[in-house]
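Input.
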Amino acid sequence: MQPVDLNLLTTLNVLLSEGSVAGAAKRLRLSASATSRALARLRKATGDPLLVRAGRGLVATPRAIALRERVRQLVEEAESVLRPEELIDLATVDRTFTLRTSDGFIESFGARLLARVGAEAPGVRLNFIHKLNKDSAPLREGLVDLETAVVEEHLGPEVRTQGLFRDRLVCVVRKGHALDAGGMTRGDYLEGRHVVVSRNGLEADAVDLPFLPAGLKRDVCSVVSGFSAALALARDSDLIATVPDRHTRNLRKGMTSFSLPMPATEFTVSMLWHPRMDADPAHRWLRSCVREVCAAA
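Output.
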């Protein structure tokens, strides 16, 4: 079976609309002879004359009349596939998005993000899951629609990123801690007892180490997997927790926070997504919501 030239559908649609080779040629920006050759190919493909001469003009055959509406719809659908998607009506969107974030993000930004999304697109549901590692496979496999992270240089080209906000590390202790009233010096920090966050449970892989001075030595008494756990321990003990400032602001309510008493590197928290979602209108809208909520917080 010979393959069908789908370009002929566009020509057929115009011919059936114009009822004239000359008129069709003008709309198609072809010569009359090229349009006549296309009509000949259409007649051969369909096994029907399609347009036959009547006086000085052409009239459609019964087969052509039967095909006219189907061909018009096919051409319009094909054109819609190949043009950029237009703005969507958020009020009609019925969709669930999954966001993978570190703990602290939900507590600091989640409620405002849900309120924004609910006001603009009530049919959209947001599911939050905890980020246990930096593996981007869930984004590639479509299990996650968007995630937040501090982007590393070796991040592959299969992931898109956009910065959300700058953040810095702070030291946190409970109210009534010996350091609560007097502030924290470098000596206080180095001599204090610490709880640190590490996704794999190893002190050497603590998430704050890349932003602290190289070779820093501190007395680590406990390693936990998330910021909320670190702050929960610091809240009910004399341990010092070192956590991101903006990321954990709501988690630290009722506690005392200090700037680090030593040079530390600030960092950017970004959102990440797979390139296949770049042009998706609903996903673009979600990214704008996340970006604006984080900027306003």
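The chain has a mean pLDDT of 89.
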